[in-house]
Amino acid sequence: MQVRESTGGTRERIKAVALELFTEQGYEKTSLREIAERLNVTKAALYYHFKSKDDIVASFIEDRLERMDALVTWADSQPATLATRRELISRYADTMFGGGWPSVMRFFEQNQTVLKSLTSGQQMRGRMMRLANALCRGDDSPAAQLRAALSLFAVHSSWFAVQTPDITDEERRRIALEVADELLAAVGREPDETPAGAASGSTKG
């Protein structure tokens, strides 16, 4: 058991240091040798855990896929209510804003080409659709499907769409969830239940 814990700890440290270097000097300009040097280990020791930079990135993606799968599993066990939708989108935000994930998400946003070239990266879209389906469970209308997808995008895009200087990650999360909640509040509602002022799209001229 001790060996496993040590191996797991080393693997996580490699990922943390690699992410630091990717952020500092760019993914393409970072080599495995530089990662090994910063870790003060041999390149052979690094190879034991990761054969390439792509393997390191794939491990970040796989971690995220596992978190998304857990969210869908949880949502499937809950009633299809607004309270469940709000809790699900909040938990989704937690997977992106907590535990060192802000740095990972910034890396994802800045390296879309790398993600698309990896098999695990190509699986991300399917997981997003599963999450969107969980968010609009009980309402299969086209509008509900779109609102559910856009609520996820509100959280996800907060990393690049909100460009206010010096905004904290917590403020960014709060704003993203406010926008997502506005969208989810209309899922499962009958057409004549639309709040006053939110319907039609007509403008006064």
UniProtKB/TrEMBL annotation:
Residues 31-50 bind DNA. Pfam families: TetR_N. Keywords: DNA-binding. SUPFAM superfamilies: Homeodomain-like. Gene3D superfamilies: Tetracycline Repressor, domain 2. Residues 8-68 form the HTH tetR-type domain. InterPro entries: DNA-bd_HTH_TetR-type_CS, Homeodomain-like_sf, HTH-type_TetR-like_transc_reg, HTH_TetR. This is TetR/AcrR family transcriptional regulator. It comes from Micromonospora vulcania. The lineage of its organism: Bacteria, Bacillati, Actinomycetota, Actinomycetes, Micromonosporales.
